[in-house]
Amino acid sequence: MARVFGIDNKYQLIMIIIISFFVVIVALAIILSNVHFEEKVDGTIAKVVNEGDLVVNYIDGDEIEFNDKKEHTYSISITNTSSAKLYYSVYLTEANVEEINVRIEDKNGKVVNEISNILDDKLINLDSIEGGETIRYIVIFDNDRRINFEGLLKVDNDSLSSESFADLILLNNNVVAPKTRVGSEIATTNEGLISMPDNKGMSYYFRGNVDNNFVKIGDLMYRIVRINGDGTIRIVLDGVLDETRPYNTNSLAVGTNASSLTLLESSSLISYLNSWYEENLRDYSEFLTVGDYCTDTTFNNNINGIIYSSAYERIFEDKNPNLYCNGNIYSGKIGLLSVDEVVLAGASGNVPNTSYYLYNKDIPGNYVTSSSYFINPSNNVAMVNIMSNGAIGDGVLVTNVSYIRPVIQVGISAKVKGNGTNDDPYIIVS
User: Fold this and answer.
1) Strand, helix or coil at 284?
2) Which of 201, 265, 273, 301 is in Cβ range 3.0-4.6 Å of 229 for a Cys bridge?
3) Are residues 72 and 131 in the same domain?
4) What's the first-to-final CA gap in the chain, in angstroms?
5) At which of 142, 160, 178 does a domain end?
6) Is the pLDDT of residue 191 over 70?
7) In this model, does residue 4 exceed pLDDT 50?
8) What pLDDT, on the 0 to 100 scale, is given for residue 152?
């Protein structure tokens, strides 16, 4: 005789079935949450991928394959879901051919870029997208010959970079010995990246006709002077400010030595520099940091009634520049080059040099440094200046005008992309 289930047994069986059903649903939800969303669109597979805070929609798919000479188009959209500006690049990868004509257009049909070698060039390199913005592109393959092509369309969130600025500089440059005698000879060729200690550790400075130390912040170009001993990066404007200014027009306080007029922190120039910083770099202040700027305050080398500073003795007599500061250190967000940094970069005495990276043909006259030079018999104070021909000048009185070349420091936490060339400078991405 067959066994008949009671009411309780039937109830238990139903509950087991219901619970098993929900377990399966939850498991499927977990699995699906970890895969890319795909759907068929006009015979292609659309794909939506999260690249950090960038959502990339490959509307016509990211897999590209054709064997003809027809025009092929692939649409993509890029959305920044964060509130911060991000940087991205668009390129082709895993391609079976190298030479192929590709162009990318914006949603209005304007050509953004055209390339013919997909291994050497990107369709878009380090462009920016504002928080909450969506950008749409069309990638077009248009060739006049039959091509059998396979590859992947790729959008990278470059703001996910993990290397620090210092890491990237060291990765892109071998640390080498100088090819010329630093201090005694000018450097006219690319001598590369060279190590020297400073007050905070081991520093690495560029010397000579360097072509991969460009940094772009906003609309302005800078040159890397050195990696500081604390891992921050010292950069100088690749040019000078429009206005000429005196270094210090302040009166000498009663009972103070004339050498106090050389101090950057109490000069009249520092307020002008700070104002320029706020106007041009305020939006980037989270990536910039305070730096140390040195002024020699010792004057004890008397030559024919002119008392020269220790910087004069170090640079002109001993020809031995260094990155230690034995004078006064001003810690601020903006400053000037020291004469030692200029000599390490490739200058030497009053010898013209138009072939090192600090020379710029568009600089029309002298620019001033933070290094003191001399006090003359009339108690007038002079700073070391750099001539328009790249040579070290005869000094400029602190009350006389000269061109200004600001120096700033990029912080340790800043992440950058680019290779440092003029065409592809380093830019801060996060």
Assistant:
1) helix
2) 201
3) yes
4) 78
5) 160
6) yes
7) no
8) 93
Res 20: pLDDT: 63
186 and 92 inside one domain: no
- pLDDT tier at 11, thresholds 50, 70, 90: low
Task: Read off the pLDDT of each residue in 254-263 and give the average, rounded to a whole number.
Answer: 89
How confident is the model at residue 60, as a pLDDT? 93
In terms of domains, do 179 and 122 share one?
no
Judge whether 350 and 392 are in contact, CB under 8 Å.
yes
- 204 shares a domain with 123: no
Give the range of the structural domain holding residue 62, as residue numbers without chain letter: 37-160
Instruction: Examine residue 420 and state whether it is found in any structural domain, yes or no.
Output: yes
User: Cβ neighbours of residue 264 under 8 Å, at least 6 residues apart?
Assistant: 270, 293, 295, 330, 332, 335, 336, 370
Is there a contact between 341 and 335 (Cβ–Cβ < 8 Å)?
no
DSSP-derived letter for residue 155 is E
What does pTM read for this prediction?
A: 0.77
Q: What six digits make up the tokens of 269?
A: 């120039």
- Residue 13 belongs to a domain: no
The dihedral built from the CA positions of residue 374, 376, 381 and 384, taken in this order, carries a sign that is negative
Q: Is residue 30 over pLDDT 50?
A: no
* pLDDT value at residue 17: 65
pLDDT at 50: 93
422 Ramachandran zone, left/alpha/beta (phi>0; psi -120 to 50)? alpha
Q: Edge to edge, what strands does the sheet with 44-51 contain?
A: 37-41, 44-51, 54-58, 72-80, 134-141, 99-106, 111-117
Owner of token pair 């016509």 = 60
> How many Cβ atoms from other residues are within 10 Å of residue 57's Cβ?
18
Own/partner long-range contacts of 197-200 (Cβ < 8 Å, ≥24 apart): 197/229, 197/323, 197/324, 198/228, 198/229, 198/323, 198/324, 199/229, 199/292, 199/323, 199/324, 199/325, 199/329, 200/228, 200/229, 200/230, 200/292
Scanning 246-383, the segments in alpha helix (DSSP H) are 269-281, 310-312, 339-345
Give the pLDDT band (50/70/90) at residue 42.
Answer: very low
**Residue 388 and residue 283 share a domain:** yes
Q: What is the DSSP string of 89-111?
A: EEEEES-S-SEEEEEEEETTS-E
Pull the structure tokens for residue 323.
């990155």
Each residue of 411-430: pLDDT tens digit? Answer: 998 889 899 999 999 999 88
Centre a 10 Å sphere on the Cβ of residue 411 and count the other Cβ atoms it contains: 19
d(CA 135, CA 343): 47
pLDDT at position 33 is 43
Which amino acid is present at 328?
Answer: N
Question: Max CA-CA distance within the chain?
Answer: 130
Structure tokens at 101: 């004509």
Neighbours of 68 (CB within 10 A): 12
